[in-house]
């Protein structure tokens, strides 16, 4: 007898990230002594998020091809610049008001500059590429080759520094992005290594998600419920509108821009990494992880709806079906990953 576990998890938006994260949080909330009780490999699984993430980013980097057509560089670079620019702007605003600490009481309890920046910085690549496959052009799919540089904590750390908050030593900033670039070098030097390492990307997502969840206290989740929903909507609105116009300025109809107005599942890992690099963010990391995870789910539901509406209203790119296969082949992109 076969039970469709994988299919059921993937039916949940961002399921490969969200479901294991919630499973770890449930165990941590109701059975907090589990890691210490079992110890050994079981205990390590509850506390090994950063180690798993380090390997994950090497594999992710290996899947990124250095080669890209000028259009892909222009499109992907523009969307990347706008998405990160919005995060920097909001980081400056919230940094002045909140600093590094989260809001501790009221309906905004748990909100922090870290949560806002982490939710805005990283695009759900799997969702973007799937939507572009339906509503866009092959070369619009390839734009994610450039946008994938959002992945990981580096840009979030950089944004927090620009916002005038607690700075990170240059070694920490380099260390945050080094696994990604090491993977990129390996993958571009050897295509067989790219194929080998790329296959591990979707496998690792539920494991580091579980370990992240094991550090969360679900007794505080109710405080983040409506706030998480509002933040998810805010990600679509505050990044979607500028991305729409940026896409049109680069020759698109706005569809690709709207399709990029989401939060990646991997972004839920960023608050914990940032806090491990700088203790000033320790209090904000737990609530921020919950809020960012909520943004993953909300944007995964809203973005396809808004993208479909944009395609109907403003039209699909004229050459959506007329491009030559060679153009798509000119810039290989990594495969969509569950939760990204």
From TrEMBL:
Function as written in the Swiss-Prot or TrEMBL entry: Catalyzes the proton-dependent uptake of 2-keto-3-deoxygluconate (KDG) into the cell.
Region ranges (Disordered): 318-340
Biased composition (Low complexity): 322-332
GO molecular function list: 2-keto-3-deoxygluconate:proton symporter activity
Subcellular location: Cell membrane
One Pfam assignment: KdgT
GO cellular component, one term: plasma membrane
Keyword vocabulary terms for this entry: Cell membrane, Membrane, Sugar transport, Symport, Transmembrane, Transmembrane helix, Transport
Record flagged with keyword Cytoplasm: no
Thylakoid among keywords: no
Family as reported in the entry's similarity comment: Belongs to the KdgT transporter family.
The organism's place on the tree of life at top rank: Bacteria
Protein name (record): 2-keto-3-deoxygluconate permease
Species the sequence originates in: Methylobacterium symbioticum
Segments crossing the lipid bilayer: 12-31, 37-59, 80-97, 103-120, 141-162, 168-189, 196-216, 222-246, 253-276, 288-309
Membrane topology value: Multi-pass membrane protein
Reaction it catalyzes: 2-dehydro-3-deoxy-D-gluconate(in) + H(+)(in) = 2-dehydro-3-deoxy-D-gluconate(out) + H(+)(out)
